[in-house]
Amino acid sequence: MEKRFDFTKLLAPLVLVLLYIVFSIFGTNFFSTDYLVNILDGSYYIGFMAIGVTFVIITGGIDLSLGTNMMCAALLGGMAYTVWGWPMGWCLILVILVSTIMGLLNGIMVSYLNLPPFIATLGMMMMGMGFGAIVTKVQTMRYPTFGTEAGWFKNVFYKTSSGLPLGAFWLAGFFIIAYILLNKTKFGRYTFAIGSNKEAARLSGIRIRPWLTAVYTFSGFCCGLAGVMYAAVYTSIIPSTGNGQELLGIAGVVIGGTSMSGGTGTLVGTIIGVFIMSVLKQGLMSMGLQSHWQTFFTGVVVIGAVLLDQYRISRGSQVKKS
Fold first, then answer.
1. Strands (DSSP E) along 232-287, which ranges?
2. How far apart are CA 221 and CA 217, in angstroms?
3. 41 domain-assigned
4. The domain containing residue 65 runs over which residues?
5. Residue 191: which residues within 8 A CB-CB, separation 6 or more?
6. Residue 280 within a domain
7. Integer Cα distance of 82 and 74 in angstroms
8. 104 vs 55, 206, 219, 222, 276, CA distance in Å?
9. CA dist., res. 186 & res. 201, Å (int)
10. Contacts of 244 (CB under 8 A, 6+ apart)
11. Tens of pLDDT, residues 23-36
12. What is the model's pTM?
């Protein structure tokens, strides 16, 4: 039987192109260098978070601790640099280590303690938000700026003195690694298998608990990388900014076509979804609209993406019955 092409796969790229067309017509100087730089800057940390949580959502789970995980780790890294006087390299290791441990704890709660992913990661979200604020005494932490002794940090992870956006290269490089991991390795195959049918995966010999724990740990590791990129771009880490950032990462994944029911998803779609989020934010600003408009329209796009996913699932079940 000849397979029909699924045109829903083209929806995310078409939405991205449509947004560019709309904002180029109704926005002011949307194609200027400043807006392009802002689009890239806003994509780095969301991109790393979204890549990690793509694996989690493919398993049929969710990670609500993305934002506070990232900010808690970045706050502790900033504390180590600003207050404790650690070398910058060790601070970055601390950021990634803290986030990875938080991801590991999520995995243990979901896999071994059998907590629902929503509850486990919701609790970790609040713990991360509280722990970061407690350690830093609700103080803003700062990372080195250009021209300082540790200014190599921004030159390496953000952009060079000539303006070359190295953050985009870091994101592209990690995307390639994650793509290979998801599509060409046992880790990726088991991720899809667990999301498609956990019981069938178990009966086929897959040890569900350690692999599922590894997925959440990987998501935590990606949050650490996101924390490094956020610190490189924005320098100042404010404790209260972590809450809500997880919605941006999850929205990018859902908009990109990954099914919330698990079993299907692509990292290419995730990256497109991330850029849709960033373009939407900058485009609305070019039209003179404030950030709450971005929140509203992001919600509209997410609901549309979920409805499309439900339609795709129901259509697939009808085809199987027939």
1. 236-237
2. 6
3. yes
4. 35-250+258-266
5. 55, 58, 59, 182, 211, 215
6. no
7. 12
8. 14, 19, 9, 12, 30
9. 13
10. 67
11. 888 888 888 888 88
12. 0.91
